[in-house]
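ok, trying the design again with the full structure, not the truncated one.
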């Protein structure tokens, strides 16, 4: 099944509407741009790619144990003192040799190690998919947090403006005797509370912006409403069926379990015989330092060469119990991986069902909040009209304004929660990775490319050069202006006198 690239902005009729009631300003950042930015510069994701390249190298490392090995040695020797009875020892010599060994049979150790390394490469790719899903889920949450908190700041700011007008109107009516001091005090109290709520909302917005900077690598600017999310399965069971087949974390732990079984075969090979083909050659030059006068001058050659080929067999008889311990250790590792598979499966089931429930519940809250907003708007209009004819007092108006604000904040928060829960559900189903999102900004990272490059490497001197940093740094990026970031003013007047406790 082709995966829908839902960030392309093409909304089909099967998609569930997830619009957010904000007007998109000019020159706004989009969710696609945020995801692309994180994909190309998030250090967590860049580190996961580097970790996968490490795992790739285990395949040529395992293969190297079954390949031809060649070594050379050389030496220069100066005999500074010779025995008086030794007439054939040279005063000095130079020697060189070369040796080769080709494993023929290793008891299956190399074969199992190579297969285990290949399986772990597949597990690593699944882990990389999981890292992408995790980072993208963080991006979506950070993006929606900023949208939510900016809307809440705007709502609270508007509430402060309304209450300031109310306070002024209450004071004017008090001057003409139409209201009492109680009415004025109630208006002033609500204004003070609204200002404190605005301060808290501004501080929360700063926190969300900084989290956005941490995850995405840049400050948010006029974020556009996110695109539609694709249609979800009709039931939690349908979503779970997809997740159990496609969740990257579950795939990774299953592959690790398969690789651990291959490790058992490698451990058992330590108890089996081994056979290798060997060859060697040596050259010795005594640098004309042999005494050729012995036995009437019968010359001894001052240089010699030799060569040999053969087979070398090793049959382990007793190794102190080490092989048995390694086999048991590998078997225990298989048991551990099997338990981890069950634990991960449990986690995936819980994640899918909770995300599905959160999404459905948030959709219900959205519908209820929209109804509450409409009703509170109508109620506030009626209460104000009734206050004008004297059947309602100031407190009734203040309460109606606060209820409308609460309903609007709840609506904004529910929209954020529904979108984040929906994306988390897609991530649990294995449908929230780079290949699903249709990101801009160049080709996607393909871990297979690096694996194909190195899997059959036989060159001892190969390297990739000094590593470079792909994650972007946030040092030097200035925060967006906010009253919550302004330095505190020095207290006016003298410091208060310290409080002393009464003595008994």
């Amino acid at each position: 099944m082709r995966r829908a690239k839902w960030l392309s902005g093409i909304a089909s009729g099967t998609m569930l509407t997830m619009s957010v009631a904000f007007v998109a300003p000019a020159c706004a950042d989009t969710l696609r741009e945020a995801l692309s930015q994180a994909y190309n510069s998030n250090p967590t994701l860049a580190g996961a790619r580097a970790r996968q390249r490490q795992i790739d190298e285990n395949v040529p490392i395992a293969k190297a144990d079954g390949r031809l090995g060649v070594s050379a040695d050389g030496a220069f020797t100066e005999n500074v003192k010779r025995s008086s009875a030794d007439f054939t020892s040279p005063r000095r010599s130079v020697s060189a040799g070369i040796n080769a060994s080709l494993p023929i049979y290793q008891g299956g150790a190399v074969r199992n190690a190579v297969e285990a390394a290949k399986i772990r490469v597949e597990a690593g790719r699944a882990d990389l998919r999981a890292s992408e899903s995790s980072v993208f889920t963080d991006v979506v949450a950070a993006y929606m947090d900023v949208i939510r908190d900016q809307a809440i700041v705007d709502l609270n700011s508007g509430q402060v403006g309304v209450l300031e007008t109310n306070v002024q109107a209450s004071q004017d009516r008090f001057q003409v005797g139409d209201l009492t001091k109680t009415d004025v005090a109630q208006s002033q109290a609500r204004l003070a509370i609204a200002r404190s709520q605005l301060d808290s909302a501004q501080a929360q917005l700063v926190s969300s912006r900084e989290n956005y900077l941490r995850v995405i690598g840049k400050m948010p600017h006029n974020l556009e409403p996110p695109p539609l999310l694709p249609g979800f399965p009709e039931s939690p069971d349908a979503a779970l069926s997809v997740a159990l087949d496609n969740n990257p974390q579950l795939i990774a732990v299953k592959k690790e379990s398969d690789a651990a079984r291959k490790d058992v075969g490698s451990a058992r090979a330590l108890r089996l015989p081994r056979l290798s083909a060997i060859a060697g050659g040596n050259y010795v030059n005594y640098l004309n330092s042999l005494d050729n006068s012995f036995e009437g001058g019968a010359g001894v050659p001052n240089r010699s060469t030799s060569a040999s080929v053969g087979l070398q067999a090793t049959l382990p008889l007793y190794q102190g119990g080490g092989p048995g311990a390694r086999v048991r250790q590998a078997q225990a590792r298989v048991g551990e991986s099997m338990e981890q598979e069950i634990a991960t499966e449990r986690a995936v089931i819980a994640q899918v069902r909770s995300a599905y429930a959160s999404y459905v519940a948030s959709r219900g809250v959205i519908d209820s909040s929209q109804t509450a907003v409409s009703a509170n708007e109508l109620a506030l209009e009626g209460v104000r009209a009734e206050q004008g004819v004297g059947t309602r007092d100031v407190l009734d108006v203040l309460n109606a304004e606060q209820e409308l604000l609460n309903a609007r904040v709840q609506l904004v928060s529910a929209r954020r929660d529904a979108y984040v829960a929906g994306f988390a559900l897609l991530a649990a189903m294995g449908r929230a990775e780079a290949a699903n999102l249709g990101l801009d900004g160049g080709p996607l990272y393909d871990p297979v490319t690096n694996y194909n490059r190195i899997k059959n490497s036989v060159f001892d001197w190969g390297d990739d050069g000094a590593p470079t940093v792909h994650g972007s740094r946030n040092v030097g990026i200035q925060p967006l202006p906010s009253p919550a970031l302004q330095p505190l003013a020095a207290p006016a007047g003298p410091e208060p006198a310290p409080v002393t406790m009464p003595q008994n």
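Keeping the full-length input from now on. DSSP finds twelve helices and four strands in the chain.
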